[in-house]
Amino acid sequence: MTSPRPEGANRMDPGKPLILVTGATGYIGGRLVPRLLAAGRRIRCLARNPERLAGRPWPGVELVKGDVSDPTSLEAALQGVSQVYYLVHAMAEDSPDFRGRDLRQALTFAAACAKAGVRRIIYLGGLGDPARHRSDHLASRQEVGAALGSSGVPVLEFRAAVIVGSGSVSFEMIRHLTERLPIMITPRWVNTRCQPIGVRDVLGYLTEALEHPEVEGVFEIGGQDVLDYRRMMLGYAGIRGLRRLILPMRVPLPILSALWVDMVTPIPLELVKPLIEGMTTEVVVRDPRALEVFRVRPMAYRDALVLALQRLDEDAVETTWATSLSREQEEQVLGSHEGMFLERHHRHVKAPPRAVFQAFCALGGENGWPAGNWLWQARGFLDRAVGGLGMRRGRRHPRDLRVGDPVDFWRVEALEPERLLRLRSEMRLDGRAWLQFTVRVEGDGSRLEQTAFFEPHGLLGLLYWYSVLPFHLFVFPGMIRALKRRAEAAMTQSGPGA
């Protein structure tokens, strides 16, 4: 099923080869698409939830609803496609059969590509000597690469180790561990050698691949430096002017390391476990052919860190590790409120809709929540205690939002400039919850409406709603009052002619 094309899609030159990108809601895919557009490529994106891409500034990109494991949806998605990027991996899913699922998906996708006459598959896999793998996830990455070539379609496979970039899961883990712990007693995996690569260089290889349509096979890519993880953390500390002491010791079970990282950093356990497992395997480039075939000249580790920190300082992070991390939920339109509990508040605000919209779009993340922030933090802690993500995901950007962005334990489900923001809860709940803000012109200012929706599932859902009602009496009225003050204060500071 094809979603409506964004404005401008029909202006694309139909004579250009059509490129399909899978995994466009993810960290790498979300950064690759705009670079392909800048290079003049004609792009189609396959996503299970295309609405999560609706807010991206990607003029002319065609969005198609589908799944790499569904041959029917792939038949439509691959129609007329010349080359495809396969950027799908189940790293964030904690399942005993993730390896088998990844393999089956790759085989299904490969067969569909062969049937559709696709000329080549471009895949980003994992670095490492297959004879020395200690990680199921690293092994799975290379098994997927082999499976993609099983139907006879040529495959260009790039294999990378740790990717260093603003918002990447590896960078964020190193950043938070180093920032928060002056003394680290670490497992011996910190002495494992790794060849990190900057995200700009990875994107450079992926983008340039289209200029070499005849190239296939496995290419190992890495940055200039081969370092162990201890030196990587100390390198970050040096740039930040931090003095850190790292003491390696024997930790009998990798899960103990994963649980500690889960506690200290925002990265959830389901992502930490495969990362820690992968850090026990040496991942360095053994075959430098990529430097002979492609123009990319990878930067040093320090330079990649400086660029990542610069993007954070500038609030210019394109995608984060949390961008694609979401529990699959049914499609829901809040047109009917039958069976739902609602809590609605409204205020007249002496400010135009633009100022009000900017105020509620700045909620969450490091900005916090303007009423009962400690209660929001406590609710996030409880969510983490039962296996949820809690508040750890934060925000991609302190002010800007787009559909699909995480906001603490919420996800932006709908966004209409200067009119509406709807957040869908991704907490572990016996039910489904939304928080919606709308604004419209009213008299000499605006009318702000704030509505909390909750659809309980069974008796536990009802008990949950009534148990949190006392807190709602404080949190929700306080939040709309704070938004009113912020919007009016912003207008006062900018002046009447702003």
TrEMBL record:
<keyword id="KW-0812">Transmembrane</keyword>
<dbReference type="Pfam" id="PF13460">
    <property type="entry name" value="NAD_binding_10"/>
</dbReference>
<keyword id="KW-0472">Membrane</keyword>
<dbReference type="InterPro" id="IPR021295">
    <property type="entry name" value="DUF2867"/>
</dbReference>
<protein>
    <submittedName>
        <fullName>NAD(P)-dependent oxidoreductase</fullName>
    </submittedName>
</protein>
<feature type="transmembrane region" description="Helical">
    <location>
        <begin position="463"/>
        <end position="483"/>
    </location>
</feature>
<dbReference type="Pfam" id="PF11066">
    <property type="entry name" value="DUF2867"/>
</dbReference>
<dbReference type="InterPro" id="IPR023393">
    <property type="entry name" value="START-like_dom_sf"/>
</dbReference>
<dbReference type="InterPro" id="IPR016040">
    <property type="entry name" value="NAD(P)-bd_dom"/>
</dbReference>
<keyword id="KW-1133">Transmembrane helix</keyword>
<dbReference type="InterPro" id="IPR036291">
    <property type="entry name" value="NAD(P)-bd_dom_sf"/>
</dbReference>
<feature type="domain" description="NAD(P)-binding">
    <location>
        <begin position="23"/>
        <end position="129"/>
    </location>
</feature>
<dbReference type="InterPro" id="IPR051604">
    <property type="entry name" value="Ergot_Alk_Oxidoreductase"/>
</dbReference>
